[in-house]
Design brief:
Layout lengths: L2 H26 L5 H17 L7 H7 L5 H33 L4 H27 L3 H24 L4 H22 L11 H4 L1 H31 L2 H34 L5 H28 L1 H8 L5 H20 L2 H7 L3 H22 L4 H26 L4 H25 L7 H19 L8 H6 L2
Length: 471
């Protein structure tokens, strides 16, 4: 197994997923009314929260554990199946109440159908974990690409026939069902015994999975607290401006770190106590993440007003101001989001949970302070909270792999020097250009060219990183 191979297949799958989402959004939006999209968004809020309880961290424990007994694997399979069934039943029972809260009667049927996703995925989550454990991402990518494609075709056909929001519901269900069938088909593992002594056999992974589950729940509320507070105490337009800036800066980074984390986890889990290899892999991963994200973030932040006014128009001027503070926040979060992989792969979910609590306290404090002022101040406080949180997180991460913060700085400082030069270069060059798509493209290309030109003499840019990743 090699990280480069994992990265390649995960990138292919993620890019294809994003592509199908864009096609779905652009094409289906012409056929499905906004109101029905809104109902689906309400349902998604509920199902996204329910995802936190789908497997309670057992899939990650299967990937991380060095030696697996058949009894543990079987216990995880039956637990995930029962959990999926339980979540489905709970959603079905509470759907009338949630429909009443939202005052949307149609939400009952939608939630009942979507609840089936949890039972279906619960029966196949172990098979996916076993494939990830062996880094069979080529198989996983092919399954995901096929299921995404088929689900999109079904949704388009149904929307064309006038099924409205149920086109989106069937898209979600068909993707889950096809993926589950293919995972069962491609994975050789089959349950060899009935569900008995599940809790006894899960003792080996209980500590890991329970701490990871608590972290995920805490992290979920931390990630969604800002939108809730802004929506409640500020205007809807303010929330819209903030969310747009947040998506601009963090959506590409989320996709990138998802690829990195999914690729790294099985590799690092198999290299426990081999700290030299882990340090090399992780430092080079950080380098690659910042190598890709820094020019994007710097160009967007230095051309913030030109970018927003040209692409989105004058109604979104506040978004340009928010970007100034969310840009450095994105730089921090692009690497901060990888630390969990280190803690999980080394079985240190207790530290991950403690740092998750710290992060929630810091961001919660920042949001409550910022909500008393303007959205710009809130964004500033959010950046400060992330900066404070970054230092202990990276300290403990590097300490666990027998490395140091200085090693990370020495590995990446050239990227920040280059990015800083690009920022000031574009900032002072910008007044010579007008607000047009031509100016935006020209300055972006100039910024990217300057960034690469400065880095060319450095050794990292010349294939060395990729050779290490292929080990």
């Amino acid at each position: 197994m090699s990280i480069f191979n994992n990265l390649k297949w995960n990138a292919v799958s993620q890019i294809f997923k994003i592509l199908t989402q864009v096609i779905s959004m652009v094409y289906l939006a012409r056929l499905i009314p906004p109101a029905e999209y809104g109902i689906m968004a309400m349902a998604t809020v509920i199902t996204n929260f329910a995802l936190l309880f789908r497997d309670l961290g057992t899939s990650a424990a299967i990937i991380q554990k060095e030696n697996l007994d058949e009894s543990v694997i079987t216990a995880v399979f039956w637990l995930n199946t029962f959990l999926g069934l339980a979540v489905s039943i709970i959603i079905i029972f509470v759907s009338p109440l949630l429909s009443h809260v939202y005052n949307q009667p149609q939400l009952i049927g939608i939630l009942m159908f979507l609840s089936l996703n949890f039972f279906i995925s619960g029966t196949s989550s172990l098979h996916l974990a076993l494939l990830e454990r062996k880094s069979k991402f080529n198989i996983i990518a092919k399954i995901e690409i096929f299921s995404f494609s088929l689900a999109l075709i079904i949704a388009i056909i149904m929307a064309t026939q006038g099924f409205g929001v149920y086109s989106l519901v069937c898209q979600s269900l068909s993707s889950t069902f096809v993926s589950a069938c293919l995972l069962w088909y491609t994975s050789p593992w089959r349950p060899k015994s009935k569900p008995q002594s599940i809790l006894i056999n899960l003792k080996e992974i209980y500590k890991f999975s329970s701490q990871l589950s608590l972290f995920n729940i805490i992290n979920y509320f931390s990630r969604n607290l800002d939108s809730f507070l802004i929506g409640k105490y500020m205007s809807a337009s303010t929330l819209g401006s903030y969310n747009l800036a947040y998506r601009i800066m963090l959506f590409p980074l989320t996709s990138l770190t998802f690829i990195a984390n999914r690729s790294l986890f099985p590799i690092l889990s198999q290299k426990k106590n081999n700290y030299r290899d882990i340090e090399n892999i992780y430092l080079n991963t950080i380098y690659l993440i910042w190598f890709i994200t820094l020019p994007f973030i710097v160009i967007i932040s230095s051309l913030n007003d030109m970018f927003v006014l040209t692409i989105f128009g004058h109604n979104w001027e506040v978004t340009a101001e928010v970007l100034i503070w969310l840009a450095p926040t994105a730089i921090i979060q692009s690497v901060l989001s990888t630390t969990g992989t280190i803690f999980m792969s080394q079985g240190r979910t207790g530290i991950l949970l403690a740092l998750g609590i710290q992060g929630t306290i810091l961001t919660g404090t920042a949001f409550f302070l910022g909500i008393q002022d303007t959205i710009i101040e809130l964004s500033k406080y959010y950046f400060i909270a992330n900066l404070i949180h970054f230092i202990p997180c990276m300290y403990f991460t590097m300490h666990i792999i027998k490395s140091s913060l200085s090693a990370m700085i020495l590995k990446t400082y050239t990227l920040f020097i280059s990015s800083g030069i690009v920022y000031f270069f574009l900032y002072y060059l910008k007044p010579n250009f007008g607000n047009s798509i031509y100016s935006l493209i020209t300055l972006s290309l100039i910024g990217g060219g300057v960034y690469l030109l400065i880095l060319v003499p450095t050794k990292e840019i010349r294939v060395r990183v990729f050779k290490i990743l292929q080990r």
